Automatic annotation (TrEMBL):
SUPFAM superfamilies the record matches: alpha/beta-Hydrolases
Protein name, entry field: Pimeloyl-ACP methyl ester carboxylesterase
The organism's place on the tree of life at top rank: Bacteria
Residue runs in coiled coils: none
Length: 227
């Protein structure tokens, strides 16, 4: 099965370099998605541009595909399920949850000169970054790609209720499955509260398991591909 891999904020497709060979060894075809504005030098990209790139990858798959979104890109994965409910076999959400219709995609941090730069490690102290040593943090910060304002402030639009029939696996790295279930039950994640097939998988890592636990993450993703 084709497995589309969508990285979160400040990352390009190379974020999945540790996961790709593991998925291939497990018999799948991993496809890291190049997002406009995150690695192609375009500072004017919009959320619509990124959605179009994801949908192009879905449409290029020979059959149904699994769509994996990390962090903010969980919303991109969910947008793919909304736009192509018959083509998406399932969605894997790694360390994040989908935004609802009418909500901003990722307006989390200060924008400067038309982009949202990596804000440094202070907002991520604690469980998010506990498994990253100083060298890994330095590498991440040096490679971080400022996210175009048109992406971060883009508005999510969901239109097809058939997305709620697409199976979802929530991979819980810096939080636990019980915490995720609690947030959904409390109404903090309305999209998943309406989804009909939601599973949870615990992964003992920080917010970027594709870097620190690629083998374990690949196995969880492959399990979701098997259904």
């Amino acid at each position: 099965m084709d497995i589309l891999l969508i990285a979160g904020l400040w990352l390009d497709a190379s974020a999945w370099d540790g996961v790709v060979p593991e998925l291939a060894a497990l018999g799948h075809r991993p496809v890291p998605v190049d997002l406009p504005g995150q690695g192609d030098g375009s500072g004017s990209a919009t959320l619509d541009d990124q959605v179009a790139a994801v949908l192009a990858a879905v449409d290029a798959a020979p059959g149904k595909c699994l769509v994996v979104g990390h962090s903010a890109a969980c919303s991109l994965a969910w947008l793919a399920a909304d736009a192509r409910p018959r083509r998406v076999a399932g969605v894997v959400l790694v360390g994040g949850f989908p935004a609802g219709d009418g909500q901003p995609y990722a307006d989390f941090f200060e924008h400067r000169d038309g982009v949202m730069p990596f804000p440094g490690w202070d907002p991520f102290e604690g469980p998010d970054s506990a498994d990253l040593d100083e060298r890994a943090r330095e590498r991440f910060a040096a490679a971080a790609i400022p996210v175009p304002e048109g992406v971060g402030k883009g508005v999510v639009r969901l239109t097809d209720d058939r997305r709620f029939d697409v199976p979802v696996l929530v991979v819980c790295p810096e939080f636990t499955p019980d915490q995720a279930r609690g947030w959904i039950a409390a109404g903090d994640v309305p999209e998943l509260a309406r989804a009909r097939h939601v599973g949870f998988a615990d992964l003992d890592s920080g917010h970027w398991p594709m870097t620190t636990r690629p083998v374990e993450l690949a196995r969880l993703v492959a399990g979701a591909a098997r259904g």
